[in-house]
Structure formats: structure tokens, C-alpha cells
Amino acid sequence: MKWLLTVAALLLSATAGYAQDISGTWQGTLENGGKQMRVVFRITNENNGFRAVAFSIDQGNQTIPVSVAQQGTAVTLTMVVLNAKYEGRLAPDGASMSGTFTQGGPPTNLILRRATPETAWSIPEPPPPPKPMANPDPSFEVATVKLTPPDFQGRYFTVKGRSFVTANTTLAALVTFAYNIHPQQIIGAPKWMTDTAYDIQGQPEGEGQPSDAQWRTMLKKLLAERFQFAFHRETKELPAYVLTALPAGHKLNKSGGDPNGLPGMFFRGLGTLPAINANMSDFANLLQAVVLDRPVVDKTGITGRYDFTIRWTPDETQFSGRGGQAPPPPAGQDPPPGLFTAIQEQLGLKLDSTRAPIEVFVIDKVEPPSAN
After folding, report:
1. What was the pLDDT predicted at 101?
2. Helices marked H in the chain — which ranges?
3. Homologous superfamily of 21-114
4. In the predicted model, what is the mean pLDDT of residues 269-285?
5. What's the CA gap between 97 and 113, in Å, rounded?
6. What is the mean pLDDT of the chain?
7. 24-32 and 84-90 beta bridge pairing
8. What pTM did the predictor assign?
9. Centroid of chain to Cα 302
């Protein structure tokens, strides 16, 4: 009998590391400041791995994208948009997970239980995704360009439904966004192009929700029509950064968002970047447009869209000289590493300084915007 028990124990130990199928609906109640909030995770097992969404059903029916990582019985559910993470461990029967939920402050205990049709909490169905725009070459039906008020603080590009909105953006910034280039790739820009800021609102013609590429197409046309922006392309060797993947592989979480949807990348202060549904081109373009002082070339070879968060301590060369103004870390915590180290340690990527032949835009004509 003792021998049989030993064999059984060895078999249990040998199979404990095998990953169980965690697809299904998981739900639990989170204590938050004396209040109870019900949270639900819906996990599906697809050909390219797990995909998931979450709901805080006592706060509405908003769908929250979730990245899933599993190693044996250990399960991590990361919600980049909330800067939150659940780290749990599956029970032997696969019916529950015990773990902690962390969002900024100390971790909170949370038990998730696999729901059945009888026990599942009711979740209002989210609205269907908008119909994609079919026109591959759209234009703005209506667009306004106004000078930014002198006391306005901040700067942003955003999409609100079917409206494209910018605030406090220079023409140079608009060009770099429209063409995915670094300001150093613009040759012959007059001074007002980098000093004068504008607010833009545009509504596309036709029906459907534009993609990222379609929004950029509309902006390119607006630049040509309203600013008379014209240029020709040349190749010039410039200082640049090259983004590559480490031999051990990247540490990015496959996104559960729409593969054809827009990326979400919004800084939570200097040096904290959550990214949702972003590809490597999106990441490289953001680094060169906002953070770094030279173009960034994506040579990772990584395809697909990912959710990730990177935290680093910016130096004075980053964010147009504002990098040294990053807030200090919370008391008792060490500051995050610099950008180059953070990219390696947190993302499994590498950023190298080099010189490379880069396409540049030589301006042939540009004028202040025409009247609305």
C-alpha cells in the first residue's frame, strides 16, 4: 500500500506542471475600500493562444481587454488599460483560482470560480463593434483648423468615435504623425512649422469606422489642401535607433483586442507607457515621435498586436528635454531603470544606437492654413 501511495504521489507531482484548460467564465468578488465589486473574466482558447476580456459588472458593461499568461497552474491576467494584474493559481480540480489582484496599491486577495450556466452572473451585452469603413482612400467631409489658445496646456491626438481631434499640435507634429516619421526626417521646415500650434477637428465622409491607416490618409490630404504641404523624398544617413528582439524571445502579451482596431498608447506620466492592441511599428513610431531624439527603425520581425506596459526613468534627452522632470518613485521603492534597460528586462527587446540610411522628406512648399 505504501508503494502504491508513493507512485500516486509521483504521478501527481509529474502532472502538476501541465497546463490545464482555463477557457471559460471566471468570476469573483473584489473588496475595494469597504465596497464589494463583482469582476468577471471570459477566457477563450483560440489557435494562437488564450484571449480574454474582463467586466466590472457593478460599474457598467465596459469590455476590458485582458492579456493571459499561463505556466502550469499559475495564471496571470493583465489589464494594461487599468494598470492592473491578477496573479492566481488553479485548484487541483480546475474549478477555482486563488490569488491576488493588484492595481497601483497593495495586492488584494481574490478567489475566482469557474462559472456554470446556472451560476454565471448576468452581464449586459456590449454594443457590437462599429462597421469598418470600406473606402480605402477617404477624405474629411468637414475639418476645422484653429490656432491653439496661448494658455492651453497639454497636447494630444485622439479619435472620438468618428471624429479626429488634435489639440496644441504643430504642423511638424501633424506631418510626423501622418507619415510615421521623426522630426529629423523633415528637411527645410520653416520656423513657424515647429513653433505654431493648432487644434484640428475632422469628420470623415461616408460611413463606417476608419482604421488607423485611413485616418492617416485623411490627415495627409488635409495637410496638402489646407497647408499646401508638398515634398519629395530622399535618402540620407542619420543617427537612429534600431529596435530588435532578444534571442531568448520577447515578453509581450498577445492582445485580445480587434486585430484591425486602433492601438491604445497613452502615457501615465513621463516614463510609464501602457500599450493596448499595439504592434511593433506602433511602438517604434511612438518612441520616435514623443520620446527619443532620433528615428527608430523596427527590425524586430515580430508580427501581431500585443498588450504591455513599460516603466522607466527618463533622462534629460527624452521627451524633448522634459525627461529629467519625471516624478520621483513612491517612498520605499527604487526608481525604474533607464529606457534601454527597461526595454530589455520588461519587453525582451533591444534598442541600439547606430547610423542608418533613412528616408527624409524635403519640403517643396508649405503655407499657413487656409480659412475654415
Report:
1. 94
2. 2-15, 171-179, 191-195, 212-226, 280-286, 339-342
3. Quinohemoprotein amine dehydrogenase alpha subunit, domain 2 (2.40.128.120)
4. 90
5. 6
6. 87
7. unpaired
8. 0.69
9. 15
